Amino acid sequence: MFDNLFGRFGKDVNVNQAELFNIADQATEMDLKNEKQVRALIQSVGAMVGRKVDQSVEDQLTKMIIDGDVPTDMDQLLKMMM
Predict the structure, then answer these.
(1) For position 69, what pLDDT does the model report?
(2) What is the pTM of this model?
(3) Cα separations in angstroms, 73 against 9, 10, 26, 33
(4) Phi/psi at 76 (nearest 5 deg)?
């Protein structure tokens, strides 16, 4: 599953697999109801892929994560992010 996910990311952006797993590990230990931590996570992912996250997108993603409205289906999640 992770190889497939990394392969899909790798086609569109230059992502270091170790860095991706490091951010994922950090996220599992975060309080995803804490707005400051969620925003930092979003900014870290944006920096990792070399893209600035627009404030409106950051606001929308932050609200979705805090409210627990993030899709659990990997294909839906990838479509949102791409």
Answers:
(1) 86
(2) 0.70
(3) 16, 19, 21, 20
(4) -65, -40
Tell me the backbone φ, ψ of residue 7, rounded to 5 degrees.
-60, -40
Tokens 């925003």 — which residue? 39
For 63, left (φ over 0), alpha (ψ -120 to 50), or beta? alpha
Amino acid making up residue 69: D
Nearest to 32 by CA among 60, 58, 81, 67: 67
CA distance 55 to 61: 10
User: What is the C-alpha separation between 32 and 10, in angstroms, rounded?
Assistant: 26
Q: Tally the residues of the chain.
A: 82
**CA-atom Rg of the chain in angstroms:** 12
Write down the pLDDT at residue 5.
52
